[in-house]
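A quick aside before the break. I want you to see a complete sequence-to-structure record at least once, exactly as it would be stored in a machine-readable document. Don't worry about memorizing anything.
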Amino acid sequence: MSRADFWCRVLGWLQVAGAVAVGGAIYALWALIFGWIAIEDAGFLAVSKWIVIFIFAFPALLSGALTIVFTDRVEEAQQGRREEQHVFLRVVTALAGLWSAGVVGFVGLHVPPLGFFSLLGIATAIIAVMGADWTADLFAPRDGSA
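That is the input. The structure line, written in tokens, reads:
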């Protein structure tokens, strides 16, 4: 494992951990706020809770998961398998990073930028746009060997 794929994995796992933390916090706050209300048919509240969790946590989770998958392509580029563009993965990863950053929305489902995690999403979009070869060479030693 080199520095390039290490930092890609860190980027991806930070996004996944952030999404889980945000989802858990929303779940806990929802239970705290609405848990004391005794409603026989709480179906609307349950669906609403999962919609809110989806809107806030899913973009970062998707962006992190795709970054982790993209890391495998970076590792392949370091091992000499270059010039494989993986266009679909790059486009989907870049769009997921932008969705996570709040730059683009999907059917109107997005939140405004949330600071640190929006920076992670933008970093994901940048590495996806630039490609696995560029990312593999980003942290390469100056002598040219990966």
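Two observations worth writing down. The radius of gyration is 18 Å. The first helix runs from residue 3 to 34. We'll return to this after the break.
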